[in-house]
Design brief:
This protein is an alpha/beta fold and 741 residues long. Among the domains are: 56 residues, Phosphorylase Kinase, domain 1, CATH 3.30.200; 182 residues, Dimethylsulfoxide Reductase, domain 2 (3-Layer(aba) Sandwich), CATH 3.40.228.10; 129 residues, Barwin-like endoglucanases. It contains 26 helices and 30 strands. The strands form 9 sheets. The protein has a 7-stranded mixed sheet, with helices on one face. A 6-stranded mixed sheet has the order 26-28-27-30-25-29. The chain has a 4-stranded parallel sheet with strand order 11-10-9-13. The protein is globular and about 70 Å long. The relative contact order is 0.16.
């Protein structure tokens, strides 16, 4: 049998590395980095090799299953979809569509099929009860970007190739491979920055892998990021170091910001942040005087008590020092495929707080309720409480705070259908599980993550293997359920998909450079009749900024051109783009949005209270882990125990903890026991436990993960703690008590 070679992208994290997949029949022989990929240049991390193990994992579901008193049993596809539509339809008829919740996990953003056809299901079930993993990781950035620039995906990215001074807050890109900063081979990029004389500064309570290679590591107290950056801004304003650069004449609220930061002197915030005031002043002066500087924050900055304030302050620092829209500073990418059409139109306000969740009164953010409202909306005694759930690629029993409460809520549902590979900690509560085809069996384009790429690139990923017999790609399953729910079950997939194209095309065309020059019928005819994501991606490419406009721009992008370039295409470096990148109603960058500024009294109260006596629990990442779903793969699970409580030597001695022995971790909502790892990486007063573990629940089918289950950190993460402006759950800086088990 002849071996076949396929060039595509890895979709297991945000780096989108180019890979070469060698197959023989249905066997994956080898997966390696693609040296000819212009973006990743041969880089690959251990997760890419796991793609082959997902393919062969005996625990992965290969047929729909239905839960019975005797356990999960196989069911046919049409029978499963008919049952799902019948049960969901009955609940909708009896209690209203809002009694059905939709939950989307973050792997969907890595897969065009899931992302595009989940939107079709949202049309079929237009419920207000929508949730996603966004309120567990990215919402502070979305809210801040939406209010300041006018688009929640409209976020400036560090220009790493030309940067002279990079300030990283709460991020560990050497392990995450870059998050909301798509940058494969990030270690080499950071080393190159230092080699050309630049400076790398990392702010993190833990001396992370990225901090290890930095010129300076500042071990900040959890929750101190916003106060720290506001103190940097205090110095910039007080010492008259303001230099707006490309933003001059394009901002609103500068004097309001000057007034705000005047009270955040380094000496005021130093104790709460655990940093020296002199060091804060030095970093501010270095950043402001660097020829080209960029400040970047991620998970540690997002999922702490002042996540939105932290991201707001970070962007203010870039703006007021002249580094927004500057080469070597932070720039807006120009993705070949833009999702801007799903957000507000240019000049329209970002949709925040248009409604409040029925029980807790949480603001609707970008059409969703935060996960902080999830359990209480199921527990409610209201007639229109959530009674059914449709979930795709999610595991909230491991990823959301107060896991015990989440489990009780899932158990209370009247009906649940899940799109997932596995019977895991959350899908074990489902009445139906509908499995997608494996990653290597899917063709795809990275519709979402290239919005945050440090270079403008495009790459099509063809399937390396045909689907296993009897399996269906997830787009077809989502379409099949959607058409049944809309009463279109008698129509073929081709007919329903044609309706999807006709709905998507006008929305894309309205914000396209080809608006007014193309007709809908001509576009639809040029796309052909074959249904599925290929047609939608081709549509989005051809109407995009680099598209061929269906023949209007010879040589422009189309799916055919990408298929003829299997390693991907370079579309140019990031470049200045003001004023067209500003989409706010005022046409200016809003430096002091009231929704964000109104949260400052909460920060002031925290500063006045001083350091808390309790230990602060934070998370951490590992290069072989991706949230909760790679732990069932032998190559990812092998080696040392990764689910350990990292504790500083000083805290270990004070608390009587010993290496490898158990530590009891207690919070307001729960207790768990984890093995101790004494580490000089940790700031005293802070302990670290990764999330995504806890594979010891009954009735799951995760044989490899169950051998080394670890503990579920979210059993002690308090669901009452949220970031005010965004509703994001606080996952870092949780007050805990630790003692020998």
């Amino acid at each position: 049998m002849t071996a076949s070679l396929t060039h595509r992208a890895c979709t297991l994290c945000e780096a989108t590395c180019g890979i070469r997949v060698t197959t023989e029949g249905r066997r994956v022989l080898r997966i390696e980095g693609d040296p000819d990929d212009p973006f990743s240049r041969g880089h690959v991390c251990p997760k890419a090799h796991a793609l082959g193990e997902i393919q062969s994992d005996p625990d992965r579901l290969r047929t729909p299953v239905r839960r019975t008193p005797a356990g999960f049993v196989p069911i046919g596809w049409d029978e499963a979809l008919d049952l799902a539509a019948e049960r969901l339809g009955a609940i909708r008829a009896a209690h209203g569509v809002d009694s059905i919740a939709l939950y989307r996990g973050n792997p969907t953003v890595h897969d065009a099929q899931s992302l595009l056809y989940w939107n079709v299901l949202q049309k079929a079930l237009p419920t207000r009860s929508q949730f996603s993993a966004g309120s567990l990781d990215t919402w502070p950035r979305w809210v801040q970007a939406g209010l300041m620039y006018g688009g929640f995906l409209h976020t400036p990215i560090p220009d790493l190739e030309r940067c002279d001074y990079l300030l990283i807050l709460g991020a560990n890109p050497l392990v995450s491979n870059g998050s909301l900063m798509t940058a494969p081979g990030i270690k080499k990029r950071l080393q190159a920055l230092r080699a050309r004389g630049g400076k790398l500064v990392v702010v993190d309570p833990r001396r992370s892998e990225t901090a290890e290679i930095a010129d300076l590591h500042l071990a900040i107290r959890p929750g101190g990021d916003a106060a720290f950056v506001l103190a940097l801004l205090h110095v910039v304003f007080a010492e008259d170091r303001i230099a707006l650069g490309a933003c001059a004449g394009r901002i609103a609220g500068l004097e309001r910001v000057r007034e705000i930061v005047s009270c955040y002197a380094p000496e005021r915030v130093a104790a709460a942040c655990g940093l020296d005031a002199g060091t804060i002043r030095r970093v501010a002066r270095e950043f402001a005087s660097a020829p080209r500087a960029a400040a970047y924050g991620r998970m540690g900055a997002s999922v702490q008590r002042f996540g939105t304030l932290a991201h707001w302050a970070i962007d203010l620092l870039d703006i007021t020092t002249g580094n927004l829209d500057r080469e070597g500073g932070v720039l807006f990418p120009k993705p070949a495929v833009s999702l801007a059409f799903v957000g507000p139109k240019p000049g329209e306000p970002t949709p925040l707080g248009r409604a409040k969740s029925p029980v807790g009164g949480f603001d609707e953010i970008l059409g969703e309720w935060p996960m902080a409202a999830f359990a209480e909306e199921i527990e409610s005694t209201r007639a229109d409480r959530i009674r059914a759930l449709v979930m795709i690629a999610g595991n909230p029993a491991l990823s959301a705070p107060n896991a015990a409460r989440i489990e009780r809520a899932l158990e209370r549902l009247e009906f649940m259908v899940a799109f997932d590979y596995y019977v895991n900690e959350s899908t074990r509560y489902a009445d139906l599980i509908l499995p997608p085809t494996a990653v290597l069996e899917n063709e795809s384009y990275d519709v979402a993550l290239l919005h945050f790429a440090v270079e403008n690139v495009a790459k099509w990923s063809p399937a390396a293997l045909a689907p296993e017999p009897g399996m269906r790609p997830i787009w077809r399953t989502l379409l099949g359920l959607s058409k049944r729910l809309m009463g279109l079950g008698a129509l073929g997939d081709e007919q329903v998909d044609g309706l999807v194209v006709r709905q998507l095309a006008p929305a894309l065309l309205e914000q396209s450079p080809f608006a007014g020059r193309l007709g809908l019928d001509a576009i639809v005819a040029a796309l052909g009749d074959a249904p599925g994501p290929r047609r939608l991606v081709d549509l989005m490419l051809r109407l995009g900024q680099a598209g061929d406009g269906f023949g209007l721009v010879p040589g422009g992008l189309s799916l055919a051109r990408l298929e003829a370039s299997p390693h991907g295409l370079e579309l140019g470096r990031l470049a200045p783009s003001l004023p067209e990148s500003i989409r706010t109603p005022s046409g200016r960058i809003e430096l002091a949005p009231e929704r964000i500024v109104a949260d400052l009294p909460r920060l002031d109260a925290w500063l006045a209270a001083g350091p808390e006596p309790a230990l602060a629990l934070i998370g951490r990442r590992d290069i072989r882990s991706m949230n909760s779903w790679l732990h069932n793969l032998p190559s990812m699970a092998k080696g040392r125990d990764r689910c350990t409580l990292e504790v500083s030597p000083a805290d270990a001695a004070r608390l009587g903890l010993r290496e490898g022995e158990g530590a009891r971790i207690e919070s307001r909502i729960g207790t768990l026991v984890a093995p101790v790892a004494i580490s000089d990486r940790m700031l005293p007063g802070v302990v670290s436990l990764p999330h995504g573990f806890g594979h010891d629940r009954p009735d799951t089918r995760l044989s490899v993960a169950a051998r080394r289950p670890g503990v579920n950190a979210n059993r002690v993460v308090d669901d009452a703690l949220v970031d005010g402006p965004s509703g994001t759950s606080v996952l870092n800086g949780i007050p805990v008590r630790v003692s020998p088990a």
